């Protein structure tokens, strides 16, 4: 067994109604004034007000930033940082999906250390702890509440940069399944497949360890057994709980094992064509699963058993069975079958491939990938 390391430095609260513990958590951190980062979509359905009311009922002050957008940009981060500094807040709540958490993490970095977010691109460039942060996911998908990265789009370069440092892990995560039970079916589907991909890519990663395997396997069990059920009925509390916990475990898995070609390829797709992250990942998944089959060391069969609807013992498993299963899963959930269906055009493939092959996730992918092969993968997914 090769050497590995891990730590679990966060405080995680799970449970239906656990949102009500927010004032208690804030007071533990001596924070009388919190800065809430979210978006107008969550405002429109009353989720933002729900959090504000809980905070203020605890006798605390809340300043709110709601201009988060999908694939958030450098300009959004700068606007958020400016308001945070002006507000006098001493902690941050990140409410939403990965985009809100990315903006909150980046805001915490700039509020603490200054400069531009581009200064911190790459691995471990954040010099120390940032503003105390509480992450509250409203989707079962990104796992951002337990991951050490923030992905921000530099529109000037059509490039999604990653700030990766364990210093930006949220200090707390509050997992309240009630918050995901109002999601539209399409969001539940794309976010759910994204969470599954986190677990799958971590499980076959070159950097996988017994710790990440444990998290990935439990995540695949929870998500694989409940994703279709949750998309069919978001009011199904048991399925919602399984998806929420599964997404978090998948986040823990890839925080330490990294991801692979699916995510390396999806970031340029989102940067160039503004395709939602979860949708891009889901569409690309079957192509990468097929490509990586050559490097399979027996883990494809385990993944298949977690996500297949057929629970009978498999005889004579072959990797193409997993390829077919992920295609079927996408179809069942109403996810497009090709990149062209979500607006991707062939003229950008070479530029996207150059960005993808330079992404650190490629190093974790179980099958080595050069530029020529990455171009071929995009063309196949198109």
Automatic annotation (TrEMBL):
This is Iron-containing alcohol dehydrogenase. The keyword Nucleotidyltransferase does not apply. Residues 9-177 form the Alcohol dehydrogenase iron-type/glycerol dehydrogenase GldA domain. Residues 189-382 form the Fe-containing alcohol dehydrogenase-like C-terminal domain. Keywords: NAD, Oxidoreductase. InterPro entries: ADH_Fe/GldA, ADH_Fe_C, ADH_Fe_CS, Alcohol_dehydrogenase_Fe. Belongs to the iron-containing alcohol dehydrogenase family.
